[in-house]
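Subject: Interface between my chains keeps coming out wrong

I've been trying for a while to get a sensible model of this assembly. When I model each chain on its own everything looks fine, but I need the whole thing in one frame so I can look at the contacts. Pasting all components below, labels as-is. Any help appreciated, I'm running out of ideas.
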Amino acid sequence: KQEVTQIPAALSVPEGENLVLNCSFTDSAIYNLQWFRQDPGKGLTSLLLIQSSQREQTSGRLNASLDKSSGRSTLYIAASQPGDSATYLCAVPDTNAGKSTFGDGTTLTVKP
Amino acid sequence: DTAVSQTPKYLVTQMGNDKSIKCEQNLGHDTMYWYKQDSKKFLKIMFSYNNKELIINETVPNRFSPKSPDKAHLNLHINSLELGDSAVYFCASSPRDSSGELFFGEGSRLTVL
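Reply #2:
Try treating it as a single job with all components included. I did that and got this:
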C-alpha cells in the first residue's frame, strides 16, 4: 500500500526566501507525481506533474524534482511571495488501483 | 468554462436526511473520483469510476452511493446523514491513460447538524 508523507507540516518564511517542500513515498513503482496547491476554502489547483521518466518540471518560480529510487520529490519555490501562502499537497497514483494517494500537505505562510 | 464543476458548493442539513452532490466534467476524461477532506484536511479517496463503471469503493459506508449516468457525470447520494459525514467532498477527473493527471472541482462543503 502506497504511503505518502510530507515534511514539514507547516512552514513560515519571510517574503523573498527560497524554500523547499518535501514529499516522500514508499512504493517507487509510480506513473507520476503531482503537486497541488489548496487555498483556504478552495479546491485543489494542479501546479506540476512529473512523469516517472522525468527528473524535474518547472513552471515559473516553481521547480519540482523526482527521485524514484529514493522515493522522494521536492517542490522548490524561488523568491517566495505572500500570495504563495497556501497548503501544498503531493499525490501519487496507485499503479494497480486507479486512485491517487495524497500526502497530508505542508501549510506555507509567507510573511510580508 | 469550468473544467470540473460541483453543485451545491455548500450544503447544511439535519441528521437523518438524504442529500446529493452533483459533479460534471467537460474535459472528455474517462475516469472520475470522489474524495473526502475531513476537518484535519486529510484527503481520502472514496470512489473511482472509469467510463461509468465503478472501479474503487474504498471502505465507504453503504449509505454513500455514487451514480454515473455517463462518463461526464458522477453524482454522490448520501442516505441517513450522520454528524461524522460533515466534510468537504471533492470531485475529480483524469484521463484514462497512465498520465493520470488529476483535475479537481471546487468542493462541496457538507455540514450535518
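Reply #3:
Confirming on my end. The interface with chain B takes residues 31-32, 34, 36, 38, 41-46, 49, 51, 87, 89, 91, 93, 97-102, 104-105 of chain A (CB under 8 Å).
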